Structures are given as structure tokens and as C-alpha cells.
């Protein structure tokens, strides 16, 4: 018999090595399932001598766990993610003959999906003007920041994808970048002249000043020369967006949302935007049509004489 915690560890390992899930996704699932194991242990299922086992799970245990998590005040989106983690885990238990698919009929709560933050074209122009003004000083961090935001907006890449880029991920002549996304899938993204110019300037003037023996082939570097980390990009994004018009989160995902919305506003079709963003499901991309529709409604109400 496999203990529950050992099965969780094996599942998370399989997610990363066999299924190609990202480190971030694996950590989230591991956290969810560890909370479930702690719930069982806290309610007297098993003991130190005989901990809970994977072959003894049932649906009611999962339902009781999610009910307790809901009562603790966790958001519906968090509860839905935990239900999804549980379903994936027990499906894997059955496929590997370690236990029953106990969570197969576990339902996720309905969530009110909020519209992502979108930055207007004028606000983006102001952001780039500010970044270019800083970069004129030749400060390597300022040159890096301009190149990062240009690439985020030009390609809509996720922050994890951006931070993992190497120099040879780029073809500056063709102005394309190869990105490894979710599920270890590669996609090739074009970018325009402004992003190309900013990246070339960073490579020629900024990167060489920060580079050291910790840099390796990383495209973007932190202030101490190592590969830039997501927290640095989040802090940069927050500093740029905190005073920009619009509500919602100020993380780098806002530039991804903005790029997708501007593409749709410019006439791009939904399938093309799906490929651009690297979404496996077209339904995930469709939220951007709601953003565009909402903006159209606001414009209509503001400008039409019979609105």
C-alpha cells in the first residue's frame, strides 16, 4: 500500500517529468493535495504508525475537505482549483493502479470570472515614453526594463516564459522569439521594430555591464548578473501600472491581456490570438472578446446620442 503523502509526491513528480507541467503548476497542485492530506490527518484518518493510504480514499472525504476550505473563507477560484487538483490526482491513482478515482464526481463551485485588466493605447504610449526617457541615461537596468516591457507587449508572453528566455531564443534579423510555454510546447512569436531596437540596445549596452559568471546564456539579467526572476518583473510592472488608468491587477499579465485585446480590436481573428497566447483551449481566449465588447459598450454609451 502506498501512503497518501508518498502518492502525492509521486504524482507531482510525474506531472513535471512525464506530463511536462510547469514548476508553478506542480507547486500549486502539491500545495492543494498536501492540504488534503493534512485535513485527513487532522480528522483522525490514519496515525503516525499507519498514515492515510492512497487506496482508501473516497468521495465524501474530498467533499468534506472542500466544504471546510469554503468555510475557512477561501475564494471560489481557489476551491475550484483544489477540486481540479483532486480530480487529476485520483484519475492518476486509478491509471497507475494505486487507488480509486474517488474524486471523479467532485464538483467545482461556479466562479465569476472577472475581466482581465487592459491598458489603453494612450496609456501604453505614456509607459513607453517614460521607459525610453529612463533608458536614455544608458543605465543598464533602465535599458533592460524597456526591452522587457517591449517584449511583453509585443509578444504577449507569460512572465515565466520571459524569464526563461536565452539569448539564442531570439532571431533579431527575422524578429522572432522561440518560447517554451505550458506543457513544454514551443511556439514562435514575431515582434516589431520597437521591441527589436530595445532588445538590441540592451544586448549591446546594458547586458554586458551586468553580465558575470552567474549569467550563463540568460537573455535578461537581474542587477547582480543572474537570470532575472519573476519578482523583479512583477515589481517593474507594478511601478509602471499603479498610476495608469484602469482597474485590476498590476502584474505583467496585464501587458499580455492588453496585447491580446489590442490585436482583437485591430481585426485579428480569435484563432490567431489563441495561437499568439499559446492557449490550449479557445474558451480561454474568448474572455478577450468580452473585454473588447465591454470597451465598445462604454464608447457607445459615452458617444452615441441615443445611448
TrEMBL record:
Record-annotated active site: 158, 182, 253, 256, 279, 288 (o-(3'-phospho-dna)-tyrosine intermediate)
Biological-process GO terms, alphabetical: cell division; chromosome segregation; DNA transposition
Domain Core-binding (CB): 2-94
Protein origin, superkingdom: Bacteria
Molecular function terms from GO: DNA binding; tyrosine-based site-specific recombinase activity
Subcellular location: Cytoplasm
Main location: cytoplasm
One Pfam match: Phage_int_SAM_1
Tyr recombinase domain: residues covered: 114-301
Keywords linked to the UniProt accession: Cell cycle, Cell division, Chromosome partition, Cytoplasm, DNA integration, DNA recombination, DNA-binding
Gene Ontology CC: cytoplasm
Subunit structure: Forms a cyclic heterotetrameric complex composed of two molecules of XerC and two molecules of XerD.
Family under the similarity heading: Belongs to the 'phage' integrase family. XerC subfamily.
HAMAP family: Recomb_XerC_XerD
Physiological role: Site-specific tyrosine recombinase, which acts by catalyzing the cutting and rejoining of the recombining DNA molecules. The XerC-XerD complex is essential to convert dimers of the bacterial chromosome into monomers to permit their segregation at cell division. It also contributes to the segregational stability of plasmids.
Name of this chain's protein: Tyrosine recombinase XerC
Gene source species: Gulosibacter chungangensis
Amino acid at each position: 500500500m502506498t501512503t497518501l503523502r508518498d502518492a502525492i509526491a509521486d504524482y507531482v513528480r510525474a506531472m513535471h517529468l512525464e506530463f511536462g507541467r510547469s514548476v508553478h503548476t506542480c507547486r500549486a497542485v502539491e500545495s492543494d493535495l498536501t492540504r488534503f492530506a493534512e485535513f485527513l490527518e487532522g480528522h483522525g484518518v490514519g496515525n503516525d504508525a499507519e498514515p492515510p493510504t492512497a487506496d482508501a480514499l473516497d468521495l465524501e472525504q474530498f467533499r468534506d475537505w472542500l466544504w471546510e476550505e469554503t468555510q475557512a473563507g477561501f475564494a471560489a477560484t481557489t476551491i475550484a482549483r483544489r477540486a481540479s487538483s483532486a480530480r487529476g490526482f485520483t484519475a492518476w491513482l486509478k491509471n497507475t493502479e494505486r487507488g480509486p478515482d474517488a474524486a471523479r464526481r467532485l464538483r467545482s463551485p461556479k466562479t465569476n470570472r472577472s475581466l482581465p485588466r487592459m491598458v489603453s493605447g494612450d496609456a501604453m504610449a505614456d509607459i513607453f515614453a517614460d521607459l525610453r526617457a529612463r533608458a536614455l541615461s544608458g543605465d543598464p537596468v533602465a535599458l533592460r526594463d524597456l526591452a522587457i516591457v517591449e517584449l511583453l507587449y509585443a509578444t504577449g508572453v507569460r512572465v515565466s516564459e520571459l524569464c526563461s528566455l536565452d539569448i539564442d531564443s531570439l532571431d533579431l534579423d527575422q524578429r522572432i522569439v522561440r518560447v517554451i510555454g505550458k506543457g513544454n510546447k514551443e511556439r514562435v512569436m514575431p515582434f516589431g521594430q520597437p521591441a527589436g531596437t530595445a532588445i538590441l540596445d540592451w544586448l549591446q549596452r546594458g547586458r554586458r555591464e551586468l553580465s558575470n559568471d552567474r549569467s550563463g546564456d540568460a537573455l535578461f539579467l537581474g542587477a547582480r548578473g543572474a537570470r532575472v526572476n519573476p519578482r523583479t518583473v512583477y515589481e517593474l510592472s507594478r511601478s509602471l501600472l499603479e498610476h495608469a488608468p484602469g482597474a485590476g491587477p498590476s502584474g505583467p499579465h496585464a501587458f499580455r491581456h492588453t496585447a491580446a485585446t489590442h490585436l482583437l480590436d485591430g481585426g485579428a481573428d480569435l484563432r490567431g490570438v489563441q495561437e499568439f497566447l499559446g492557449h490550449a483551449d479557445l474558451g480561454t481566449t474568448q474572455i478577450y472578446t468580452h473585454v473588447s465588447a465591454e470597451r465598445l459598450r462604454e464608447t457607445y454609451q459615452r458617444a452615441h446620442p441615443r445611448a
